[in-house]
# Entry
Amino acid sequence: MPTTGKTARTALDHLRDLLDLLDRGAPAERFEPPAGAARTGGLSEQEAAAVAEATQVALRIRRTLSQHRRREAELAALFDTAGDLARLRDLDAVLKAIVHRAKLLLGTDVTYLSLNDDEAGDTYMRVTDGSVSAAFQQVRLGMGEGLGGLVAETARPYSTGDYRDDQRFRHTATIDSAVTEEGLRAILGVPLRLGTRVIGVLYAADRTARTFTPDEVALLSSLADHAAIAIDSARMLDETRTALVDLNEASRTIEAHSDAMRRAEDAHDRLTDLVLRGADITDVATAIGAVLQGGTLIHDAEGAELARAGTDARPPSTEAVAASVAASRADGRAVSVAGTWVCAVLAGPELLGSIALTGRADLDDADRRLFERASVVTALLLLLRRSVAETEDRVRGELLGDLLTRAADPAGLPARARRLGVNLDQPHAVFVLHTEAAPRPRLLAAAARIAQTRGGLAGLHHDDVVLVLPSEAPSEAAASLASELGHALGGPVTVGAAGPATGPAHCADAYAEARRCATALRALGREGTGAALRDLGFLGVLLGDRTDLGGYVRQTLGPLLDYDAKRGTDLVHTLQVYFDTATSQSRTAEALHVHVNTVVQRLDRISRLLGRDWQRPERTLELQLALRILRVNRQGGA
# Structure
């Protein structure tokens, strides 16, 4: 290796530089010098290429870490907001905290909140953060005017990358002047809803043009739900105090109402504290059931059960649950179906799942509102679970893709797999799944749940849903998976299997074989079943990469071969002559120089050994092919 006056740096030194940059959280541009130094520092082409590849890996890791930090910051802001709601009682303080949290969460220049004036028929600016224009802070929008007026009128979120040039909105001189004076261009607005009634709008805006992502819309919508709860709670407390002063005769009713409010706040604090402490979905379901004195079921958006606590009751039918979730989603309230209360879990307009409460057919209004508040906390937890799952699924999907495409660095795959709890040193089977009974995302989600519980991998590869699981018996595992997935998805699932494969080097070939097997099963009309190529008889022999003719003969003629070997008979030869004479018993007897009754007896023995259906066309084809292979092998001395 060429050297200069200074000590030559090795590839390891450059790799240590990259790790040091990752440790310090250095910006992306700082990662290029190590790669450049490697190219000009006297390293071999192979070492320089390795350093360059390591640089790209380090940059990907840096991006992943940055995404994690951003997710953590967003969730922390959401949890801080929930804590504010639990501590603050003054409406202005709560609204200012929410607007400030929205600014921190989305990182925009300005955030603000407007409330609807039912008497005037418009919406007015209530709280701002980051605003510098007095005119903007006092602007009022008529229903349907501007972006905010349209959100307030339609109860739907709207966003624009550049408001001044966006003709979807009804522009007015007053609104355009205030927006121009504030210097705003990109604006996102989401409704503050209480049931079906819109009480205001929460905004985030930037002074430069940009596009708001669906995640930002969902997060701001979640904050808007908290704001609506805060406004509702404050107004109800005000109404309670007023009624206590004006209506002494209703003191007991008001006291009960206040107790219900305090109970709701305590429950909200308890559930929020669970989420902050990292509780799982089952802990939240248990807490909801304890607070409301009933059983709890939590489902995801596809209807799959996520958690169950305090109940053995079966939920209403799938159609009834879907209808009740749709009704709850439409009006923002919990609904009752067949004695079970169901509430949609929403992040803004997005459906994340549902909560069902059993054993409380008589749920009063206070407990109903508490149940609805529990859905907001559940939404926060599901958003957190989805963020973590998306990251893990991306990492697992990348590993699965590298396994099935013969990655350039197969030696590194076992270590990557171990970090995900997968041991590639064990024999693994590869399964290709297909169904027409459910959308592909549902099939993939069901496969992912199986992979996580059994130490395997699941993902999409070349438009196939692929599952890799520890197994030394692919045929039995495929049949079991077809039954399990078919039950979970409510329809037939076809599973083609291959393996076992030990080590990363054989997974790509196993995937290709499993894919051919799945295609063959569907072509044969065997949808809803699971098998490996070896289970498909001569068709499996034709389609397989590793043709096992001896195994095929043994599988097809095994009972006859064993019987002949044990008793010194020659049933195999009798069967061969029987087929050669076009299944004529008389000609078979003539060729064997025996009586026709002897042939009949031998054929009866063959039927008992092979099964009564051995003369069906597909079975006779299998048998004749096996006999020909056997004859060729014997003639060749095999």
